[in-house]
Structure formats: structure tokens, C-alpha cells
Design brief:
Elements lengths: L5 H9 L6 H10 L1 H16 L16 H20 L1 H5 L18 H14 L4 H17 L10 H18 L3 H17 L4 H17 L3 H17 L3 H17 L3 H18 L2 H17 L3 H18 L2 H17 L3 H17 L3 H17 L3 H18 L3 H13 L5 H16 L18
Helix pairs in contact: 1-3, 2-3, 3-4, 4-6, 6-7, 6-8, 7-8, 8-9, 8-10, 9-10, 10-11, 10-12, 11-12, 12-13, 12-14, 13-14, 14-15, 14-16, 15-16, 16-17, 16-18, 17-18, 18-19, 18-21, 19-20, 20-21
């Protein structure tokens, strides 16, 4: 992705008459780091405008101290982007001893830039997003009580914890993610937060609860945040909340209703030029069509989502969508084609840090082998999976499920593989669920 320069973004904010306006506008929709620069400039521009003070018993021009804060904020952010270049490129360096204690990193600007980087990393490598958010938390919590931002420093701390929650949801650390939500809520309560701060946090909580199969709890959070997004108009927030509301219907197997909702939202996202939202909705729509046994309609939506994610550089979404396409091919009975696709899909999911998804994709690989009569290769794959998962420290229920496939050896059938794969998906969301073997069948169908 090619980024406009800071000067180009500032010129865009101050004067929309340039020929590059549509290009920069589209880029800001997709890139949170550049959008952060634009928002900082809009804030500084608003403070310099006399109209911003018309509703207050205040001078015609903004007070010098507020202008000084705006200037310091802008300066800190510029310096932070320079000082954090190597760490954003290679987040593991933030874990090296003494790195977070460096004097140049002890600023509010560093926290803001780390939060924006964590947000971006969620679509690329969620494990890196966790590292970046944790660094933001460590620095934000260490800022002095007499900080120049006053009580607003609590909002920085809340933002850092919010990004940790967002990232840990994507790494399937659901309990830790909910704990981060509670930390963020406490910090918001201590600072000059807005109803939209609450709405965005409740949206993240709804996503976590949905992933944990707590659909009733997710319903409550989505209804609350949607009401706030509507009361304090935030069109993008409304779109995201309605997307999750449709996902909850999908999760309840009401695929037709979810599909209808997502198609309506896709039309709005396309009209607004929100490429990232359009891509995610296209992927959701494709999966809904698969569940409705309509592979003809699913395929073009998968293809559209994949092309958009590649253009946006969303690494995790690219991997997931390629997996969706491979599963579509498997579902259609094109087993040789599935067998060609799945090894690369497994590697891509693993490289993106999506361990659970990569494991289930390997089971798709095993299913394709069985469908082609290659039972010995499928058994070898299942045995290798058990060894690898022991090394990864997977839970006992997961190891029992995979051990069941290993013990079947050459008697393993597609229905066995599907049973274990579906169990592992449930286990990711409900860690206390126990593995049960499928009912015994006395026919050879489904091999």
C-alpha cells in the first residue's frame, strides 16, 4: 500500500480542491495510521477556528494553552512515528530488555502511534497487535499524574487497553480480551470520555462474546452500542454493529436472514467507498451462500473479497479468504483442486499466527485425501497433527479429538474428520466443551 505524505494529508484536510482528493479520501478510509494524521490535523485546525469557541463565554480566539497543547500533540506524534519505525516493522523488538524504558518513548504521542499500529496489525498479524498494544499500555500507565493532558491521559490508557482487547479477541484469548475491556471501561470512567467511546468498547465486547458463543450477551452489547451510534451519529459504527447483529443470526444458523442483512450493508459500503468494509461483507456473504448450498453465488464474493484484501494488505483476511475458497472447492467435490490449494493455505494461516484455523485447514486436507482414497496419507497427516499439537500445548480435549483420528488410522472416514474439525471450532469458542466420539455407523458411505 502506497501512503500519501504528511504534507499531502494536511493539504487534503485544509483544502479539498486538489485533483488527488478522491485518491486520498479512499486511502484514509482504508489506512488507520494516515487517518490518525488527518484527524490530528482536523483537531488542530478546529482549535484555530474562532467558530469553535462561539458557544462558550470565551475570547474570539482559542486560548494560548490549548493551542500549545495541540501543537505539542502534533509534535509528539511526528516524533513518535520516527522513533517507532523499527518497532512497528518488527514488534518483537519491543520485548527486548530496556526498550520500553527509553526516554524518547515516554510520551503520549508514542501511545497514540502504538494504538494505531496495533489496530492496523489486527488485520495482518494479530499476535503483533497484542505486542504493540501491550507496549502502549506499559507506556500509558507509566505517564505521570501531572501529565499535561490532565484527566485526558485516562483516555490514552483506555485506548491502549481497548486495542489489547481487540487484538486478543483475534488471537482467541477471549478471557484476557474481556479483562482488557474492563480495564478500558475503568479508564474511560476516570477521564472526559464520550458516549461514542462507550459504544466502540461495547462493540468490541459484543464481538468477543459472540466468539465465545455467548449470543445472548452479545445481543445486549450490540443493541446498546447500536443505540449509541444512532443517537450520536456514527455511520461507520452503525454499519459495524449491524454487521455483527447479522453475524449473530448467522451463528444461530439463520443464514438467509444474515445474508439479507449483509447484502443490504454491502450496498451501503459500496456507495460510501468503504473498501475494507465491502471486503469483509463480501467474505461473510460468500460463507452464508456456502451454508445455503449455493456455491455458484459464493464463488464471486470470495473472489471479490480476496482481491480487495490483497489490495489492502490485510494478511489475516487474505489467509482466511483463501481457506474459504479452498473449502468451497472441497464442498463442490473438486478434491484434486482442493488438495493443490490446502497445503499452501495451511502455511499461510500458520504464518499469519492463526493456529486454530491452520489446524482445521489441515483436517480439510485430510478430508480431501480420504475422498481420493488416500487413507494411509490421511492417517499419516493425523498422526503428525497430534505430535505437532502436543508441542504447541493444545488443550486435552483437542488432543483427545485428534488422538481419536490417529487411532482410527486407515479406517478414518470423512465423517470422522468433519466431526473432529467441527468440535475443534466449538472448542475454540467454548473451552470447557468435552469431546465425544461420533455415533457408530455400520455402512461404508461417506468414505
Amino acid at each position: 500500500m502506497t501512503h500519501p505524505s504528511r504534507q499531502e494529508i494536511v493539504a487534503f484536510v485544509e483544502d479539498h480542491s486538489g485533483s488527488s482528493e478522491p485518491i486520498i479520501a479512499a486511502h484514509l478510509d482504508a489506512c488507520s495510521a494516515c487517518r490518525e494524521i488527518a484527524e490530528d490535523e482536523r483537531f488542530a485546525l478546529a482549535l484555530r477556528s474562532p467558530s469553535a469557541w462561539a458557544a462558550f463565554d470565551a475570547p474570539a480566539h482559542p486560548p494560548d494553552d490549548l493551542l500549545a497543547i495541540a501543537a505539542r500533540t502534533e509534535r509528539e506524534d511526528i516524533e513518535a512515528r520516527t522513533n517507532l519505525l523499527e518497532y512497528i516493522a518488527k514488534p518483537l523488538r519491543l520485548l527486548w530488555p530496556g526498550r520500553l524504558e527509553r526516554p524518547e518513548l515516554q510520551t503520549a504521542g508514542v501511545v497514540r502511534v502504538l494504538c494505531a499500529a496495533a489496530y492496523d496489525a489486527c488485520s495482518k498479524v494479530p499476535a503483533n497487535a497484542v505486542i504493540l498494544a501491550d507496549a502502549a499500555i506499559a507506556i500509558a500507565e507509566a505517564l505521570p499524574t501531572n501529565h499535561y493532558l490532565g484527566s485526558a491521559v485516562s483516555l490514552l490508557r483506555a485506548s491502549a487497553w481497548r486495542e489489547r482487547a481487540r487484538a486478543q479477541r483475534l488471537t482467541s484469548e477471549f478471557s484476557a480480551a474481556l479483562d482488557a475491556v474492563e480495564h478500558a471501561a475503568r479508564h474511560y470512567a476516570r477521564g472526559p470520555s464520550t458516549p461514542l467511546d462507550e459504544a466502540h468498547l461495547r462493540y468490541i465486547k459484543a464481538c468477543i462474546l459472540a466468539d465465545q458463543d455467548d449470543l445472548a450477551g452479545a445481543d445486549v452489547e450490540i443493541a446498546a452500542c447500536l443505540a449509541l451510534f444512532e443517537a450520536f451519529p456514527d455511520a461507520n459504527g452503525c454499519m459495524k454493529a449491524m454487521t455483527v447483529a447479522a453475524y449473530l443470526r448467522y451463528h444461530r444458523c439463520d443464514y438467509r436472514s444474515a445474508l439479507t442483512g449483509w447484502l443490504t450493508l454491502l450496498a451501503h459500503a459500496d456507495a460510501g467507498g468503504d473498501n475494507a468494509m465491502s471486503a469483509r461483507l463480501s467474505n461473510n456473504i460468500a460463507n452464508a451462500y456456502v451454508h445455503l448450498n449455493d456455491t455458484a453465488n459464493a464463488a464471486p464474493f470470495f473472489a471479490r473479497a480476496l482481491a480487495a484484501f490483497i489490495d489492502l494488505g490485510f494478511r489475516t483476511e487474505i489467509a482466511r479468504t483463501r481457506w474459504g475458497l479452498a473449502r468451497l472447492v472441497l464442498f463442490e467435490g473438486r478434491y484434486e483442486d482442493a488438495l493443490r490449494r490446502l497445503p499452501a493455505v495451511v502455511r499461510e494461516l500458520r504464518d499469519a499466527g492463526l493456529k486454530s484455523e491452520s489446524l482445521r485447514a489441515e483436517l480439510d486436507h485430510a478430508e480431501a485425501l480420504i475422498a481420493l482414497g488416500r487413507h494411509r496419507a490421511a492417517g499419516d497427516l493425523c498422526r503428525a497433527l497430534v505430535k505437532r499439537c502436543k508441542a504447541l500445548g493444545l488443550s486435552d480435549p483437542a488432543l483427545r479429538a485428534l488422538g481419536y483420528l490417529r487411532d482410527l488410522d486407515r479406517e478414518v472416514r470423512r465423517e470422522h474428520v468433519r466431526h473432529v474439525r467441527d468440535f475443534l471450532e466449538r472448542l475454540e469458542h467454548s473451552p470447557r466443551v468435552a469431546f465425544a466420539e461420533p455415533p457408530v455407523r455400520h455402512t461404508e458411505s461417506g468414505r
